[in-house]
Design brief:
This protein is mainly alpha-helical. It folds into 3 domains: 34 residues; 128 residues, no CATH class; 34 residues, no CATH class. Helices cover 40% and strands 2% of the residues. A two-stranded antiparallel sheet has the order 1-2. β1 and β2 form a beta hairpin. The longest helix has 27 residues. It is extended. The N and C termini lie far apart (68 Å).
């Protein structure tokens, strides 16, 4: 009786089985790995803004406190953005009349806010409260990176769950010392961090409902 399958059928079947097994392991791994790359997390993303606002000039050069523009950081979940009127008192009339400030003039004339593009955003299924973190002594640069040196603001952190949880597990290793103006801040050493954690009564919160509500 003639064979139903050619001799190479065994090789083909073995190859297919090995390929399926490899893909079953490799594909989830590559998805897991890609989800942690800047291409997926948005880390280092720096979208253009309607006005090229230089954080390094305002924060480091002029010493403006972050809370002047982001007043909600200490009392609300959202840090917020400044009203257009907050931009006016700090600049000369000649500057306000320049082409650079055209969006400011348009916003004042129409009453519509400037269409700033958000840089740092956690997923919608994650609850993040700025006030809780700021009042606990977490410095702005801990999450937003070296804003004092940023000509164009970019997303400094990956904002993955792993990145968030590492601080919740050991806040004494990440809490910072310094003013919110960010000038000259430094991360606390471990012993000083433990003292700050005790002083601010910072909890090691790692339950799912802490962030997913």
């Amino acid at each position: 009786m003639a064979q139903l399958f050619p001799p190479r059928a065994n090789v083909i079947v073995r190859t297919v089985l090995v390929a399926v097994a490899y893909c079953g392991v490799a594909f989830p791994f590559w998805v897991w790995a890609f989800a942690r790359t800047p291409a997926a997390t948005g880390q280092y993303r720096a979208p253009s803004q309607p006005i090229p606002f230089a954080h390094n000039l305002h924060v480091s050069g002029l010493g403006i406190d972050c809370r002047y523009c982001h007043a909600g950081a200490e009392r609300a979940a959202m840090a917020g953005l400044p009203p257009t009127q907050a931009c006016v008192p700090c600049h000369h009339d000649a500057t306000l009349a320049s082409n650079l400030f055209a969006p400011v003039r348009a916003s004042l004339a129409t009453g519509h806010p400037i269409a700033w593009r958000r840089i740092t955003r956690v997923p919608d299924f994650v609850f993040f409260n700025h006030a809780v973190h700021v009042r606990a002594g977490v410095n702005c640069e801990t999450c937003h990176g070296p804003v004092t040196t940023m000509q164009q603001l970019y997303q400094a952190a990956p904002l993955t769950m792993e990145w968030c949880v590492q601080c919740h597990r050991a806040p004494e290793r990440y809490i910072a010392i310094g003013e919110h103006v960010l000038a000259g801040w430094q991360r606390a050493d471990f012993e000083r961090g433990r003292a700050l954690v005790a002083a601010f009564d910072i909890q090691h919160l790692t339950s799912c409902t802490t962030c997913h509500r």
